[in-house]
Design brief:
The chain is of the alpha+beta class. Helix content is about 45%, strand content about 20%. The strands form five sheets. The chain has a four-stranded mixed beta sheet, covered by helices on one side. A hairpin with a 2-residue loop joins strand 13 and strand 14. It is globular. It binds flavin-adenine dinucleotide. The site of flavin-adenine dinucleotide has 20 residues, from strand 5, strand 7 and helix 11.
């Protein structure tokens, strides 16, 4: 079915005062300006053209598995984005990217999300996009040279190991059971890591692992956790099995990984020992927002397909869309999409003001993960039987967006932490 590409509202200005409550501190910010700079608008147009001309025709490529595209297909996609000058737009220019700020990312990632394979081509998919962001923020020069540069070029992939099977870290990361024991057995001190991680996206085929482990000898005691960088082929890392999951787009799928006697030198510590939870938060606030950006593009695609169908398919003597029940679903889709975009742009803007935006990114995550789910679900309903077939991408995206209400913090946990801040500070007022 042909699908028209459509841009979000070109530009608008909101001159209201922006306010944010950050860690109990009420921050009065400068005026919000939601206009899209010309160079970002041009980049969006190029991304839309790339999606239309290079990606949509490849969506039926058989080199897609239940665990994402094969590595060969991923590299082909990356080559296309590189040729189009669209590779790793989120990474700093010195590392081979385009150096976009968060607001520009909101515009470009949404355009890429229209076809999820485009996010893989452009190297802005999870977890690599967030891992690159973390490396850029926290890594030292040598770590960036060794890992960030090849990641940004799309030559290699990475994974992030935090979650553990019960009774370990899940919605509550402080329940981390994986340990990193410092040992002086070797000439230089090193860490020995033991534990089990699961739901590790992209573990199969990744070259780099970012591992969260509890460093019990740290002065921070049980509160301490540290992030480590490790080669995935290091002795002591065992990918036990690939999980069969509802979603199927993410490259490498999701795996269970056993860490047994993994020995890492001091130089493998990302940032500082004992700061892992702080870095995890610094990674997550922008990371959950970029998920919102990408899946918003996918929701818009479903809405476009449903709108097309509602215009052309007839029932009871008129086009489906002329029936109020269907029209209302389109209207609700439109409002959900608009609300998501505003929530994303506002949180992105705060991040660009060097605010932590934990409150706003939490709210955006709940708003978007739930609204995007509703949009895709309504679109499927409008399509009737066609919606549950793979003749459109809607059924596929339906499977993809459901887990978004769980990863990067389940809705309930975000609501809970939002409520804590409201109780503490009165919220945004
Ligand atoms: C597709 C996908 C990809 C993922 N990729 C990665 C990855 O690459 N790396 C990684 O480390 N992890 C990854 N995860 C794991 C993800 O971060 C966890 O699933 C998430 O943090 C929730 O943890 P859990 O599954 O252990 O849920 P649990 O901690 O077992 O919680 C189960 C449910 O309990 C409820 N709940 C929990 N706390 C509260 C509360 N305070 N109030 C009310 N209700 C509550 C929520 O409904 C929650 O869904 C991924 C998960 C998915 C689904």
């Amino acid at each position: 079915m042909p699908v028209a590409m459509r841009c979000p509202a070109r530009a608008f200005r909101d001159m209201s005062r922006g306010r944010a409550v950050i860690a109990g501190r009420r921050v009065e910010s400068a005026n919000m300006d939601f206009s899209i700079p010309d160079e970002v608008a041009r980049l969006r147009e190029r991304t839309e053209r790339f999606v239309r001309d290079a990606i949509l025709p490849r969506e039926a490529d058989p080199r897609q598995t239940a665990h994402g595209p094969t590595e060969e297909f991923r590299l082909d996609l990356v080559a296309l984005a590189r040729r189009a000058g669209l590779l790793s737009p989120h990474v700093g220019r010195e590392w081979g990217g385009l150096g976009l700020d968060h607001r520009a990312k909101a515009v470009v990632f949404e355009a890429a999300g229209y076809a999820p394979l485009a996010t893989i081509a452009m190297n802005v998919f999870a977890p690599d996009e967030a891992n690159m962001h973390l490396l850029e923020q926290v890594g030292d020069g040598q770590q960036k040279e060794q890992w960030l540069r090849p990641l940004a070029s799309g030559a290699i992939r990475s994974c992030f190991m935090m979650t553990e099977p019960a009774p370990g870290a899940g919605a509550d990361p402080s329940m981390l059971l994986t340990t990193a024991r410092r040992t002086k057995a070797a000439a230089d001190s090193e860490f020995v890591i033991d534990g089990t991680k699961w739901l590790v996206t992209g573990a199969v085929g990744a070259r780099l692992a970012i591992i969260m482990a509890r460093t019990e000898d740290d002065r921070l005691g049980p509160a301490g956790a540290t992030m480590f960088l490790s080669r995935m082929d290091a002795p002591g890392i065992h990918v036990e099995r690939l999980l069969d999951t509802l979603d199927q787009y993410m490259t490498g799928g999701h795996a269970v990984v056993r860490l047994e006697g993994l020995r890492l030198p001091e130089s493998a510590v990302l940032g500082r020992v004992g700061e892992g939870f702080r870095y995890a938060q610094a990674r997550l606030a922008p990371a959950r927002l970029t998920h919102c950006m990408r899946w918003l593009g996918a929701a818009r695609r479903c809405h476009d397909i449903a709108t097309d169908y509602a215009r052309t398919r007839h029932a009871f003597g008129k086009p489906l869309g002329e029936h109020e029940g269907v029209g209302f679903m389109l209207a609700d889709n439109e409002m959900d999409i608009h609300t998501c975009r505003l929530a994303i742009w506002h949180a992105a803007w705060l991040l660009d003001q060097a605010e932590r935006a934990r409150h706003e990114s939490s709210m955006a995550k709940v708003i978007c993960s739930e609204a995007i789910w509703r949009v895709v679900d309504r679109s499927m309903q409008i399509l009737g039987g066609l919606g549950i077939t793979d003749d459109t991408i809607v059924a596929r995206l339906f499977r993809e967006v459901r887990p978004f209400r769980i990863y990067d913090g389940p809705s309930e946990v975000h609501r809970w932490s939002i409520a804590q801040r409201v109780l503490r500070t009165g919220g945004l007022g």
